[in-house]
């Protein structure tokens, strides 16, 4: 027994069932909208807490770079504690919101994918526990926090290389870039395995840690198929990103001609279209992984045609006669 190409099935899923991609966009864009609203509200509230004196207004009205910088330094002085507290509260709130939305959204999309794969085999159920998905997303949020800490650590290490007595900006940037790339690669690997583990929560009913172990076993047993699907969908994502970056240059080219609002609207439209394509590609790649794990099997051996019954339209082939090479009939050799 064999299965069809998981990569092909993933791409077919994107076009045959666009509702799956729209469901993925729904929970992702809901979180993005919440982030945008909360960040905007927090920024406005932070500006309201800043004291601006008459002298600061006068210095700002001069539009002189040095005087404006002095006014901003006076206005922002002493507000670092409020910024740190607001950032911490906002980060915790957004992390909790993302854990809930990502767990619920992934449960819905995976159940729909499994129902699509087994629509010709009804009656199969996939029981799971939502708290296992929430646990996986909690670890993913922790990995994102580790990424931020690693980025700060990369900047600190880069600063330690270049000092006031021995400035070395090139070496500092090289250290920062190297450490930052290593931290990001580690985060990408951990985040990929955690996102893959959610598949085993729904399909196999595993708990949080059991799904992590199952994801590692799955990758080890199907490394070729998983890498092939990831490569093809990664290339498609790269093409979409290249097209989007080229398309963004079109509205930006009219920055000096059209109003700023129209230019920003064009950039926003292109950005949202890219995010939509990325979400559809993600759901297609997830469908390919699910197909590798639990796709219905097909029999590649074609059925032999039935043999006709004896005596019905069949004739025996006549015997083949062998001609004597010494026979002179039909010979073009003259007889002496």
SSE-based structural type: mainly alpha
Q: What is the 3D form?
A: globular
C-alpha end-to-end distance: 73 Å
Helix content: over 70%
User: What value does the Rg take, in angstroms?
Assistant: 33 Å
How does the major sheet shape up?
none
Please provide the ordered H/E string of secondary-structure elements: HHHHHHHHHH
Low-confidence stretches: 328-336
Question: So how many helices?
Answer: 10
- Strand portion: under 5%
Determine the mean pLDDT. Answer: 82
Number-wise, the strands total 0
Compact summary:
This protein has 336 residues and is mainly alpha-helical. The chain is 74% helix and 0% strand. It has helices spanning 6-16, 18-48, 54-61, 65-76, 80-117, 130-161, 169-204, 208-221, 223-252, 260-294.
